[in-house]
Amino acid sequence: MKNEECFSAPVESFMDDFDFGENLARFDKAAVFEEIDAMKDGPPFRKKKEQYLQPHENVLDDDEVEKEEKSQPSTTKDGYYYLTENEQKVPAVSPGDRAAIFKSSEMAGFSRERRIATVGLCCAQLVLGLIGGSQRFKVGNKHQKPTVVLLCGSHTQGAQGVSCGRHISQHHANVIVCVPGENKLNSEVSRELQLFRETDGEVILSPQNLPASPVDLIISALHRPAANLENDFSKSCIRWATQNSKACILSLDPSKHQDFNSKWSIFVGLPLHGSASLGNIYLCDPGIPNKFYKSLGQEYVVPYGSKFVIPLEDT
Amino acid sequence: MKNEECFSAPVESFMDDFDFGENLARFDKAAVFEEIDAMKDGPPFRKKKEQYLQPHENVLDDDEVEKEEKSQPSTTKDGYYYLTENEQKVPAVSPGDRAAIFKSSEMAGFSRERRIATVGLCCAQLVLGLIGGSQRFKVGNKHQKPTVVLLCGSHTQGAQGVSCGRHISQHHANVIVCVPGENKLNSEVSRELQLFRETDGEVILSPQNLPASPVDLIISALHRPAANLENDFSKSCIRWATQNSKACILSLDPSKHQDFNSKWSIFVGLPLHGSASLGNIYLCDPGIPNKFYKSLGQEYVVPYGSKFVIPLEDT
C-alpha cells in the first residue's frame, strides 16, 4: 500500500517540474574540485573513520572543519590574548569560535556580502597607509604610482581581497588581482570580480602570468583561517610571492598555519593565535554589533575606539 | 477574432494566479503619501502640463525630479568648483547629474545597498573624529560616552543615516535614531533599521519623543539632494534640532536648499553647489570606480588620495 502511494503517480507528473539546467547550475563544480584538491588520501569521511588526522591537523578547508574545531577547547579559554595600544586585552580565538560569531550575525541579517564589503574597505584603508599614505597617493603623482598584487583564493577571504583591490585601484594604484581561473571561482569571488573589472585594475587567471618586474606590495588572501589550503594555485602564488623578495606581504584574514613570512597580517573581528610568520598584527572591524561577541564573556569589550583598523601587540 | 483570443479564457483561470495579499504588499502606501505631502497644488502630471513650476523650483522628491534636472544645464558647466587641501578642483554638480552617475554604477552591479553601507561607514569615521576622536572614544571611557541623534527620512539619505548610526553605536556612543514611524519607511530604511536594532542604540518613531536633555551631535539625513521635503516629520525634527541649540548639526548628503544651519555637511561622491547654511563641507567616497565619473570630462580626477573622506574648501 505504501509503495503504491509513493510510486503510483506517473513519472511525467514530476518531470514537468524538474529543471535540469537550474539544478546543474546549483552544482558548484569548482568548490567540489577544490575540496578534492585539498585532500591527500581520499574523501573526508573515510579519513575521519580511520583517524588518519592528528588533533592539530587541518586538511579540509570548509565550515565542517570549523564546526569540528568548535567542539575542541577554544583558544579563548586557554587565555591567550593580544593587547591594543591602550593595553586592552583582545582574546585570540579558534577559527571555529570566530566562524560561529559570524554565523550568528549572518542569521540576524548581517550578510556575508556586507561583511566582505566592510572588510575590503577597512583593509584598503590600512593598505593605503602602509604603502605611502597621503604623500604617495597625492592626486596627480603619477610617476610614483604603486603596484599592488592581490593573490585571491576561491573563498570568502579571496572575495575580501578582491573587494580591497577594487578600492585601492580607485585610489590611483596599479592593482593586479590573481584568481584561479574564472570557472574555479565561487559566487562571492565572482561577484566581487565583476565589480573589480569596472576599475582600471588587471585580472590574472593563472599564477604563471604574475609580473616578473618588482611590485610594491603583495596581499595574500589565499588561505582560510581554519586551514592552509595546499592546492597548486596557492603553492604557485606563494612561490612567486616569496621569490619576488623585495615586496612585503600583507596577509588578509590569514590561516594560523601560514608557512611563509608576511610583514603584516590583518585579522577580521577577532585574532587567531598567530605564529611569528604573521608579522605585525592588525585587527579590522567587520561591522558586526557588539552583542554577537557575547560568547566571549562579559569582560570582552569591542576594542576599536574611534578607529576601524587597530594594531595589536603580541604578549 | 482578436477579442475572442483575448477574452475567451474563463476568468477563473487567471484568478488562481492572482495573489491579492502579495500585490497589496507591493503597494508602497508610505511613499505615495509622502509624495502627496510634497505636492502643494495637485499631482505632478497636471502641474507639468500647466507649467506651475518655475525652472529653479523642486517640489517632488524623487528620481523624476532628478531626471528633469538632468536636462537643464548642469552646475558643472557653470564652472563652479570646490578645492581639496591639495588645491585640486572638484566640480559642483546638479543633483540630476550626480543621480545619473549613481544610476550607471547601479546598472553595473554597484547596488544602492552597497553604496548605503559604504557611505554609512565613511560617515561614521568622520563623525567619530568630529566628536572627540581617539581621546573620547578610548575604550572604557564610560562617563564621557557621547550621545548622537540621527534624524532619518524615508529615502536613501535616511538609510545612509541609519547605517552610520549603527557603526557609531558599535564604537561606544549612545545613539538615537529617529524615523517617521515603522509603516512609513521605505525598504532601504527598514533594512538598515533591522540591523540597527541589533546594536544597543535606541529607535524613536516620532519626533515628539526626541530627548529633552542636551545631546553631543545631531545628524540630519532628512532631505534628498534634489529637494527639501517639507513634511510634518522633517519640520518637527528641524524644530527640535534648531532649538536644541548647543548641539552641532552635521548634514548627511544634504539638499542644496537646506533652510537651517549645520556646522558640517558631508556630500556623497560629488558636491552640490551649496549655500552658507551647509557649513564646512566634506566629501566621501561611495566606492564607485573612476570610470563612472567620465561624464564630468577628462580633466576630472577622483580626489581622495589615500583617504575616503576629505574636506573641501569653498572658492
TrEMBL record, chains A, B:
Swiss-Prot/TrEMBL keywords? Cytoplasm
Family matches, as InterPro entries: DFDF (IPR025762), FDF_dom (IPR019050), YjeF_N_dom (IPR004443), YjeF_N_dom_sf (IPR036652)
Q: Where in the cell is it found?
A: Cytoplasm, P-body
Q: Which GO terms describe its molecular function?
A: mRNA binding
GO biological-process terms attached to the record? deadenylation-independent decapping of nuclear-transcribed mRNA; P-body assembly
Q: Which GO terms describe its cellular component?
A: P-body
UniProt-annotated stretches for the region Disordered: 41-79
- YjeF N-terminal domain mapped to chain residues: 93-294
Tell me where on the tree of life, at the top rank, the source sits: Eukaryota
Domain DFDF intervals: 6-42
- The principal localisation class reads cytoplasm
Similarity remark: Belongs to the EDC3 family.
Q: What is this protein called?
A: Enhancer of mRNA-decapping protein 3
* Record organism: Stichopus japonicus
